[in-house]
Specification:
Chain B: Belongs to the calcineurin regulatory subunit family. CHP subfamily. The complex is a heterodimer of chains A (about 850) and B (about 200). Chain A is mainly alpha-helical and about 850 residues long. Chain A contains 36 helices and two strands. In chain B, about 50% of the residues lie in helices and about 5% in strands. Chain B has twelve helices and two strands; from the N terminus they run ααααααααβααβαα. The two termini of chain B are about 20 Å apart. The chains are: A mainly alpha (about 850), B mainly alpha (about 200).
Chain lengths: ~850, ~200
């Protein structure tokens, strides 16, 4: 099976399958039940394919070769149509076509116009599997897209001429025909660009309704198609331009999830439509009542379309090569001539002909079917071996590197500058101009501010590289990770977007994610290490974006199910992290990162009663913390989220985690391992503290910080670092997508884990833990003291020395964040 | 733009320039006109100011560096042969250049390596043959603009250097620079068609 698909293009198989299906239906029902209806084809099947190809068109490549593409599309199609039509007419005059084919010159020209256009669907289907080099592909494919305007005009003009009767056609009608060529093509392009503009502008304001973003893309693109179709303009051109024009801005504006949705929906729709088209082509061909065979016409047409295509390509290429920097060589020309596949567009157009006006319609239908089948099956089958045999330059897939991206930009600037110096306003000059215009006005207008800020191509490559590295690391299951591997270029991958600023913030303490990992790596071994590394990577590289992006969708559309599952994951991760840090804490290592935000704890007691009850079915256990390594409590706080939502972007918090960490002094080693069983995570490995962790107390903690950047982490960032966190988070937000308010799901504690009803502020353990440090449920009061009454004063007092101590042990002083305090107060009032 | 009637013969040393740069007669003439037009007060040479007056260069992020590269070794005057020599790097590579070239002859100015070298020296400000992290950062700062923060720029610069750096000296040498671009069609990317 694999062999079949590698040899035979899908489109061929589909047509053959359609033939078989059609044959069966015909045999059973005695009449053809289905066929490719032109209405269905043009209204529903074609638009997704064209949109897909327009939207994902490599725009730089397209515009680099625009001259060649336009030449082939306009001149080439006109040439093909007229020469084929005229030659067929000549064939008839010569008596080689049976006299029962009643057609005049105009009929043949009409037929020539519909049979001459290279079909985007067929070209795409075949060329995508051949992998010729990009330039060749974009020229053939671009031609097939852009020639639609010419085909439509030619077809309509010829059709109206035929209907008028050749005797009544006057000179002005020819002029009108020429004029309509411009109107149809330019009008179609204009419609597309207008809708592209609208689409970009609309997506700029969908921050709060992320879920409709993909819908908007499809809706407006389809609207462009319908509008152009209604106005008798080139609909294919309109959709192509719409997709081409809007992509840059839409991609920048919509959320990551929407981007994925758009991409896959578009691809899926396109391939569905393609499949249906080819199947229906096969099925329709079976219906013999529709067509009438004439060997002379069929063979003549086949010969002429191949011959004139080749001749046209050679002639045009010769002219074009005078102007091209990289001339198209002979091999390119062969592939271009041979790749001129005809397809469903021609078939739909020929079906649309009016039999009363064109008596030879049935013959044309048969000829078209044969031509389509011949080009798709024979040429489609042979083009791959041909390309191999001719040693056509294949497309090389290489991963983008930052160097290439950067230098490519440099080259563009250099070339633009040299053109300036030479005083020639060429392509580079205009492209430079356009880019400046785009930067100054269009992007400002069409991109949301946050997206615009971050939307730089070099930056984009950097970001994508980071993501890719993270994914590939995880894919490899951490096998490639060694202490040396981590310092390789992939290293910065963990310092993705937000983390760059975070790590920078922490730079004074001098540690990075990799350092932490290395430390762990050098000490642990075997599976433990792999697990840990993979886990870190998952947290740092993969999990975070997913989580974050989820937050960017509207809460109303995300099933609670998914949320809960994800929250559970987070919970488990946190659990593990706590355990790790706890283990380290035992060895007198302080963790700046695990210091809680006091406001959550304080607020919760007041407004979260329902939540608390829901979350904690258990009675308060003030002593529980002494048995537990970590107590994590995630509380739903919708009210608070709502109130905060307008405030900043960072408020896409999913839930609130209350962490209580027992002091290690109270716990003995045995207890720790006992508590490990409490943790629900299936593969928690109690990490042993590394040498570095022991010696450099800040190391693992800081490292963790850099690794586990997620909105979750914001909960456990020290108060005095929250300014930095907010900045970094909002910078991440702007890259990913601004969040919406979201109802955080409630993460229930696994039954076995111990839960305290009392909200507890997690506490960083000072490096020199005092034995007397009991873990009171009132730790939270440290935060609550801002807003709450003095009810908890004794506990507060108990806590305060600790806090104070902590503050000057390992937190940089003086950076307390008033912003968070305000939020906290607000939460408390709720 | 100078009078159209002028003839290539009026260009001093036209033959040796042609041999060196490979420009066609017509291109040389065109460049000569341009040179004369840029030299608006007819000094016979170009100064930095002359080039800086080209409006579009002012908005080119690398404009100043490109102007500087016309003035090698800190010289202040740019004569016509020098002008043409710089531009010759952007002449498209045609088959003759590769086919029947005498291997003893020096590499033509428009060879891949020379094109790359031109780009390289835009980065390498201190001319030590290496793009240091700092130099990379400066270029990035020029090209990326204000929308990316300094820290992000730094991490990009770090990564870019790291990516190309093979011998681990924390800088990109010319060979490493060329290697990082080996997949790219430099001959095509760094050529301007009209400079035949």
């Amino acid at each position: 099976m694999e062999k079949v698909t590698s040899l035979v293009p899908e489109s061929c198989l589909l047509i053959l399958l359609g033939l078989v299906l059609g044959g069966i239906v015909l045999a059973v029902a005695k009449k053809a039940e289905y066929q490719l209806e032109p209405g269905t084809f043009f209204l529903f099947l074609l638009p997704p394919i064209v949109l897909d190809s327009g939207y994902f068109m490599p725009s730089r490549l397209f515009f680099d070769n625009l001259g060649a593409i336009l030449t082939y599309a306009v001149v080439g199609t006109l040439w093909n149509a007229f020469t084929t039509g005229a030659a067929l007419w000549g064939l008839q005059q010569a008596g080689l076509v049976a006299p029962r084919v009643q057609a005049g010159l105009l009929d043949f020209l009409l037929f020539g116009s519909l049979i001459s256009a290279v079909d985007p669907v067929a070209v795409l289907a075949v060329f995508e599997e051949v992998h010729v080099n990009e330039t060749l592909f974009i020229i053939v494919f671009g031609e097939s897209l852009l020639n639609d305007a010419v085909t439509v005009v030619l077809y309509k003009v010829c059709n109206s001429f035929v209907e008028m009767g050749s005797a009544n056609v006057q000179a002005t009608d020819y002029l009108k025909g020429v004029a309509s060529l411009f109107v149809v093509s330019l009008g179609g392009a204009a419609v597309g660009l207008v809708f592209a503009f609208l689409l970009a502008l609309t997506t700029r304001f969908t921050k709060r309704v992320r879920i409709i973003e993909p819908l908007l893309v499809f809706l407006l693109a389809y609207a462009a198609y319908l509008t152009a179709e209604m106005a008798s303009l080139s609909a294919i051109l309109a959709v192509t331009m719409c997709g081409l024009g809007c992509k840059k801005y839409v991609e920048a504006n919509i959320s990551h999830k929407s981007r994925t949705a758009v991409k896959y929906t578009m691809k899926t729709l396109a391939s569905c439509a393609e499949t249906i088209i080819f199947m229906l082509l096969g099925i329709s061909a079976v219906d013999s009542s529709k067509w009438a065979w004439d060997s002379g016409l069929v063979l003549g047409t086949l010969f002429f379309i191949l011959f004139f295509r080749a001749l046209g390509v050679v002639l045009q290429t010769w002219v074009l090569n005078q102007f091209r920097l990289v001339p198209l060589d002979k091999i390119d020309q062969v592939v271009m001539s041979y790749g001129g596949l005809r397809g469903a567009v021609a078939f739909a157009l020929v079906i649309l002909l009016d039999r009363t006006k064109i008596p030879a319609k049935d013959y044309f239908v048969a000829t078209t079917i044969v031509v389509v089948f011949f080009t798709v099956i024979v040429q489609g089958l042979t083009i791959k071996p041909l390309v191999k045999w001719l040693k056509v330059k294949r497309s090389e897939h290489h991963k983008p590197t930052l160097n290439q991206e950067l230098h490519e930009h440099t080259f563009d600037h250099i070339l633009a500058a040299v053109e300036d110096v030479v005083g020639h306003h060429g392509y580079h000059y205009w492209r430079d101009r356009w880019e400046q215009f785009d930067k100054k006005y269009l992007s400002q207008l069409l991109m949301r501010r946050s997206a615009y800020r971050i939307r730089d191509q070099i930056w984009d490559v950097y970001y994508r590289l980071n993501i890719r590295d993270a994914i590939s690391f995880v894919d490899q299951g951490g096998h490639v990770l060694s202490s040396t591997g981590l310092t390789l270029p992939s290293m910065p991958s963990r310092n993705s977007v937000a983390e760059t600023s975070v790590t920078n913030l922490l730079r004074e303490s001098g540690s990075g994610a990799c350092l932490d990992l290395q430390v762990i790596d050098t000490v642990r071994s075997g599976r433990d290490r792999e697990d840990a590394v993979m886990h870190h990577l998952l947290c740092g590289g993969l999990y975070k974006p997913r989580y974050r992006y989820k937050a960017s969708c509207s809460r109303h559309f995300i099933s609670e199910d998914a949320q809960e599952r994800q929250d559970k994951e987070v919970f488990q991760q946190n659990m593990k992290r706590r355990l790790e840090s706890f283990k380290s804490t035992k060895h007198n290592i302080c963790f700046t990162k695990s210091k809680p935000r006091p406001r959550k704890a304080g607020r919760k007691k007041k407004d979260g009663m329902a939540n608390t009850e829901a979350t904690n079915g258990k009675p308060p256990r003030d002593l529980g913390f002494q048995d537990t390594a970590a107590v994590i409590l995630t509380v739903e706080s919708e009210e608070e989220e709502d109130s905060d939502s307008s405030e900043t972007e960072k408020e896409d918090d999913e839930g609130i985690i209350f962490v209580a960490r027992a002091t290690s002094e109270v716990l003995q080693e045995g207890k720790v391992s006992g508590s490990l069983e409490v943790c629900p995570s299936p593969r928690i490995i109690p990490p042993s503290p590394t040498c570095a962790e022991k010696e450099l107390p800040w190391k693992s903690g800081q490292g963790d910080l850099a690794v586990y950047v997620s909105s979750e982490t914001t909960k456990i960032v020290p108060v005095d670092m929250q300014t930095g966190w907010n900045q970094s988070i909002s910078s991440l937000e702007s890259l990913a997508s601004p969040p919406c308010t979201q109802a955080p799901a409630m993460t229930r504690l696994p039954p076995r884990s111990l839960v305290t009803e009392e909200p507890q502020a997690p506490l960083n353990l000072p490096s020199d833990l005092r034995p007397s440090f009991a873990f009171p449920p009132s730790l939270a009061k440290a935060g609550r003291s801002h807003s709450e009454s003095s009810a908890d004063i004794p506990q507060q007092q108990e806590l305060q020395p600790l806090m104070g101590h902590e503050d000057h042990t390992h937190l940089s002083p003086g950076t307390a964040n008033s912003h968070w305090c305000i939020q906290f107060n607000r939460g408390g009032r709720l | 733009m100078g009078s159209r009637s002028s003839h290539a013969a009026r260009i001093p040393d036209v033959d040796s320039i042609r041999r060196e740069t490979g420009f066609s007669q017509a291109s040389l003439l065109r460049l000569y006109h341009r040179f004369r037009a840029l030299d608006w007060n007819e000094k016979g040479y170009l100064s930095r100011v002359d080039l800086q007056q080209i409006g579009a260069l002012a908005v080119n992020p690398l404009g100043d560096r490109i102007i500087d590269s016309f003035f090698p070794d800190g010289s202040l005057h740019l004569d016509f042969p020098g002008f043409v020599r710089v531009l010759a790097r952007f002449r498209p590579v045609d088959d003759e250049d590769n086919g029947n070239r005498d291997p003893k002859e020096p590499e033509p100015l428009n060879s891949r390596m020379n094109k790359l070298r031109f780009a390289f020296q835009l980065y390498d400000l201190d001319r030590d043959g290496k793009i240091s992290r700092q130099e990379m950062l400066q270029v990035l700062r020029l090209m990326v603009g204000v929308q990316v923060t300094e820290e992000q720029l730094e991490s990009i610069a770090d990564r870019t250097v790291q990516e190309a750096d093979e011998d681990g000296d924390g800088a990109v040498s010319f060979l490493e620079f060329a290697k990082s671009l080996e997949k790219m069609n430099i001959e095509q990317k760094m050529s301007i068609r009209i400079l035949k």
